[in-house]
Write a structure and sequence with these properties.
Chain B: InterPro entries: APP-BP1, ThiF/MoeB/HesA, ThiF_NAD_FAD-bd, Ubiquitin-activating_enz. Chain B: It comes from Lactuca sativa. The complex is a heterodimer of chains A (450) and B (532). Chain A is α/β, with parallel strands linked by helices. Chain A has three domains: 236 residues, Rossmann fold, CATH 3.40.50; 68 residues, Orthogonal Bundle (Arc Repressor Mutant, subunit A), CATH 1.10.10; 104 residues, Ubiquitin-activating enzyme E1, UFD domain (Structural Genomics Hypothetical 15.5 Kd Protein In mrcA-pckA Intergenic Region, Chain A, Roll). Chain A is 33% helix and 18% strand. Chain A has 14 helices and 13 strands. In chain B, helix 10 crosses helix 12. Helix content of chain B is 51%, strand content 10%. In chain B, a hairpin with a 2-residue loop joins strand 5 and strand 6. The radius of gyration of chain B is 29 Å and the shape is elongated. Chain B folds into four domains: 201 residues, NAD(P)-binding Rossmann-like Domain (Rossmann fold), CATH 3.40.50; 81 residues, no CATH class; 110 residues, no CATH class; 84 residues, no CATH class. Chain B has an eight-stranded mixed β-sheet with strand order 3-2-1-4-5-6-9-10, with helices on both faces. Classes of the chains: A alpha/beta (450), B alpha/beta (532). Chains A and B meet through helix 1, helix 3, helix 10 and helix 11 of A and helix 2, helix 3, helix 4, helix 16 and helix 22 of B.
């Protein structure tokens, strides 16, 4: 290996090769040069959602990929069982907020990087918080959290009069997930590549045992555990909620499960299994998190810089039997209520918010009930929590035209439960409304509709 | 940095809980006994080791002769500004030690290439050697050393948006391959006498509706297969028409629409149609392997294979030892538990026979008949259908005489074109650097000249390999020069992650390590495994 010039190497020695030199296999907007490198350092703001196994890796990877403005959001505190993979945490950190410790550790080691931690729930932040970032990177382990961020990111998306997504409103997401030796990484460009909702079927349904099996014909150790957890607990502790993080509660479930197993001569109930079943623990190791996070960080760098092609659009990694990687190009669901152009509705200026909500129930595409409505960053009506419901109830009788500041048209975000009976699920969609008889509406505004 | 801590440590079990659920106490204990040597601690090597240290690997030895410079601060998390000018091995080692004080960490400040040339016996003390960022000549030498010393070896390299991981071990045998999806071993098409007898004790046509809907599908299918065979000269359904008819017969037994057990029976009926005996081609290959003719030098694995072979030919009547577990299925508790016991008893009986055969063979080849533990034999029997053997060609052989038809196939297959292009170019850059003392594009300027030199080098490499007239995409050659041997952190973290995952599989002897050479394609992630 040549050693010449080694002493004068710059910190961005390696990254510069990628960002400063032209190439042929690059993104369409790639403009190599020091300006690109400096812009990424100065202006690209990236949000990392989750400071766990993937989040720790992501923060490190992004900090060493030329990004200097990072924020991280996580509501969890550090636990001992995190330490086999969440390498930014030490034993003495147990109990501290993950986001704060992770941010501090990376800043200590990579000078020039600024990481703002947010120790809170993702729902605690306003939509404006999320709209501020260039790219949102997700290191999560639940479908619910992914769906939430997806909904927020897709709500920023606007379509032009030709029905094409407007690039400046597109909030790219990069998502990773792992389980044991397996994982996935994906790039979501709302309006172009499928969002979570478009491919919601990718998530396997959770294992649920029929209650009659638990109660009448238990056969396996998990049956005994779930009996103790779901049936016996409520029988014995009337009104007291089971807390999976309370070791005494867990111990109680374990000993009840043991009794039940003994009664039916069912082998295999252990404390470890009890925890696994009750908390639905997903096994996790450092190496898989490293692989998936690295893929996500690399894609984030590519989206921000155009320095190479991007993953299109879903990578799976499986190291169980040999090594298998696969890239699948999923396609958008054109009918997707989340990332599509939404539903168009024409209203009278006198129509009240309540009347709109009733119309949503009749709209054959939606059949939506339990509706909550937002306009811009403002909540017009919210079903829950009760305090918010009470605060917004008075809007119900006000005309929507007025609530939307008398603009001839606009976009609302509505959430609720939708679908045909038997297939109803929570749903969120954009509603493009226009008011009849108000100047300023041209035919083209209605093109590209639902 | 790490101060001795006063407070009692939490159970290591809790700390490793999420991985113990994958590889169990045995896997963990194998990791804790393993000693690892890392060659070169740039980001690729450091990240590989980080993932192993977190998991509680026994000991690590970091070998690197360089000092920390500015460029390292931009791609390696294990070094920081205060380390500038210090030995890199020392700094990386100190950071890794901070991650897990249960790991014995030490470093040697020496260039790996020097060590390979001057002190080959150094490597024999390790369980696994992880060699990162080595050029071709050193890879070949190290591979020879490790093969002679029976030390497992894995190569990892990051290069711009490309890279590779390659395992080099003469033979790696796996008992617990733990595949995700594997057909259960129920013997519905070939029940042993006790299962038949138990089936006869159950009345499928019971008038009690509760009993009827709680008869497990195992019993339904064994009974109905038996009835079918009686009516068809001892044969089970084999044609499409017969299979359809068999399913109709099951359906006709249903007396209420909510009988899940009958639905399960229809879904599982293909298990009745499956041929008897060993069906896995993988296992057949192992049984036919010359290593199954054992002598005093044979490993425990092959001694057990020899015993397995005898069992199949004799007591097994063509079948491997029964696995002994059944999946959950609709059933009354009592029948299910009894069935479970029945399967376990048969598995135990098979294990005892195999165990005796193992001891006989050991005696015959002049080894202590008790030198293979019963636990191991039991695990072997339980996993008999899933045994896996991996063999890796020597690096020298692959480099000098790769399998040409495979190479030609990759070169002409669009799915593989980038991966095989990277494979050739990753070798070409080493030749390039041997000739010009630097990698193409390593320093700024004269890019066009470097590109044409790399192209010439790649063409001559292809010619040497016997692949004349297979041009590489120009864009890829350009791309390789653009990379200029950069070790990007994200790529290094990916490659390091892959390497550490493979090391874990090698050490725990669980799951199946990758075969061939993994070529990372960071352009569009269409990475490939090449078997050359």
């Amino acid at each position: 290996m040549a050693d010449a010039g080694a002493h004068q190497s710059s910190r961005s020695r390696d990254l510069d090769k990628l960002l400063l030199r032209p190439g042929h296999l690059v993104g369409p907007a790639f403009e190599p040069g020091t300006e690109l490198r400096d812009d990424i350092q100065e202006y690209a703001r990236i949000l990392v959602v989750g400071a766990g196994g993937l989040g720790c890796e992501l923060l490190k990877d992004l900090a060493l990929s030329g990004f200097r403005n990072l924020e991280v959001i996580d509501m969890d505190r550090i636990e001992v069982s995190n330490l086999n993979r969440q390498f930014l945490f030490r034993l003495e950190d147990v109990g501290k907020p993950k986001a704060e410790v992770a941010a501090k550790r990376v800043m200590e080691r990579v000078s020039g990087v600024n990481i703002v931690p947010h120790f809170c729930r993702i729902e605690d932040k306003l939509d404006e918080f999320y709209s501020d970032f260039m790219i949102i990177v997700l290191g999560l382990d639940s479908i619910e959290a992914r769906s939430y961020i997806n909904e927020v990111a897709c709500s920023f998306l606007e379509y032009d009069s030709n029905g094409n997504p407007r690039e400046e409103t597109m909030k790219p997401m990069v998502d990773g997930g792992t389980e044991g030796f397996k994982g996935h990484a994906r790039v979501i460009l709302p309006g172009i590549t499928p969002c979570f909702q478009c491919t919601i079927w990718l998530f396997p349904p959770q294992v649920k045992y029929p209650l009659c099996t638990l109660a009448e014909t238990p056969r396996t150790a998990p049956h005994c555990i779930e009996y103790a957890h779901l049936i016996k607990w409520d029988e014995v502790h009337s009104g007291k909620t089971f807390d999976p993080d309370n070791p005494q509660h867990m111990q109680w479930v374990y000993s009840e499960a043991l009794k039940r197993a003994a009664l039916f001569s069912i082998p295999g109930v252990t404390y470890t299994l009890t925890q696994g079943v009750v908390k639905n623990i997903i096994p996790a190791i450092a190496s898989t998190n490293a692989i998936i996070s690295a893929a996500c960080a690399l894609e984030t760098l590519k989206i921000a810089s155009g320095c190479s092609k991007t993953l299109s659009n879903y990578l799976t990694y499986n190291g169980v039997e040999g090594l298998h990687t696969k890239v699948t190009e999923f396609v958008r669901d054109k009918e997707c209520l989340m990332c599509g152009p939404g539903i168009f509705m024409e209203l009278e200026t006198s129509d009240t918010l309540k009347m709109l909500m009733d119309k949503l129930g009749d709209e054959p595409q939606l059949l939506m009930s339990g509706v909550s409505v937002k306009h811009g960053g403002k909540t017009l009506y919210m079903q829950a929590p009760p305090e918010l419901e009470a605060m917004t109830r008075s809007n119900l009788s006000i005309s929507l035209f007025k609530l939307m500041e008398e603009s001839p048209k606009g976009i609302l975000h509505v959430t609720g439960t939708a679908g045909k009976p038997g297939k109803r699920q929570s749903c969120s969609t954009k509603l493009r409304v226009a008011f009849k008889g108000v100047a300023g509406i041209k035919d083209t505004d209605m093109a590209g509709g639902a | 940095m790490a101060e001795p801590k006063a407070e009692p440590k939490p159970e290591p079990k809790t700390k490793y809980d999420r991985q113990l659920r994958i590889w169990g106490e045995q896997g963990q204990s194998a990791l804790e006994k393993a000693s690892i040597c890392l060659l070169n601690c740039g980001p690729t090597g450091s990240e590989t080791l980080k993932n192993l240290v977190l998991g509680g690997i026994g000991s690590i030895t970091v070998v690197d002769g360089s000092k920390v410079e500015n460029g390292d601060l931009g791609n390696n998390f294990m070094v920081s500004e205060s380390n500038l000018g210090q030995p890199k091995a020392k700094c990386v080692c100190a950071f890794l030690q901070e991650l897990n004080d249960a790991v014995k960490a030490k470093f040697i400040e020496e260039h790996p290439v020097t060590l390979i040339d001057t002190n080959p016996s150094f490597f024999s003390q390790f369980t696994v050697v992880i060699a990162t960022q080595l050029v071709e000549a050193s890879m070949v030498k190290l591979d020879r050393i490790c093969r002679d010393a029976n030390v497992m070896l894995i190569f990892a390299r990051s290069y711009g948006l490309s890279g590779f991981v390659r395992i080099s071990v003469k033979e790696h045998t796996v008992i617990e391959s733990k595949p995700d999806h594997f057909l259960d071993d129920l013997r519905l098409n070939n029940p042993w006498p006790e299962l038949k007898k138990f089936t006869e004790s159950i009345d499928l046509d019971t008038s009690d509706p509760v009993a009827h809907k709680h008869t497990p599908y195992i019993l339904i299918l064994v009974k109905m297969a038996n009835d079918w065979a009686k009516a068809h000269n001892g044969k089970l359904p084999s044609t499409r028409e017969e299979k359809r008819e068999f399913k109709e017969l099951i359906k006709a037994k249903t007396i209420a629409p909510d009988e899940d057990n009958y639905k399960e029976a229809i879904e599982a009926s293909f298990k009745v149609f499956a041929p008897q005996g060993i069906s896995s081609s993988n296992l057949k290959r192992i049984l036919d392997d010359p290593c199954s003719e054992v002598d005093s030098c044979s490993s425990d694995f092959w001694v057990m294979v020899a015993a397995l072979k005898e069992f199949i030919a004799n007591e097994g009547g063509g079948e491997a030892p029964l696995e002994g577990s059944i999946p959950d299925m609709t059933s009354s508790t009592e029948i299910y538990i009894n069935l479970q016991k029945l399967y376990q008893a048969k598995a135990e009986a098979d294990f005892i026979i195999v165990g005796q055969r193992v001891r006989d063979i050991l005696k015959k080849i002049g080894r202590d008949p008790l030198s293979i533990s019963n636990d191991l034999i039991k695990s072997f029997c339980k996993n008999a259908r899933k045994l896996t053997v991996c063999r890796y060609k020597s690096i020298e052989e692959e480099f000098n005489s790769p399998i040409l038809p495979e190479m030609q196939k990759y070169l002409s297959d669009e799915e593989y074109s980038v991966a095989v292009g990277f494979y050739i170019l990753l070798r070409a850059v080493d030749r390039f650097s041997a000739n010009y003392n630097a990698f193409p594009g390593q320093f700024d300027g004269a890019m066009d000249e470097e590109i044409s030199r790399l192209k010439t080098t790649a063409v001559s490499l292809l010619t040497d390999l016997g692949c004349n007239g297979s041009p590489l995409p120009e864009d890829l050659i350009n791309e390789m020069c653009r990379y200029g041997a950069a070790e990007l952190h994200a790529v290094a973290a990916y490659i390091g992650g892959v390497a550490s995952q493979e090391v874990i599989k090698l050490i725990t002897r669980q799951f199946v390590p990758m075969s061939g050479t993994f070529i990372f394609n960071g352009i569009d992630h269409k990475s490939q495994l090449l078997s050359l």
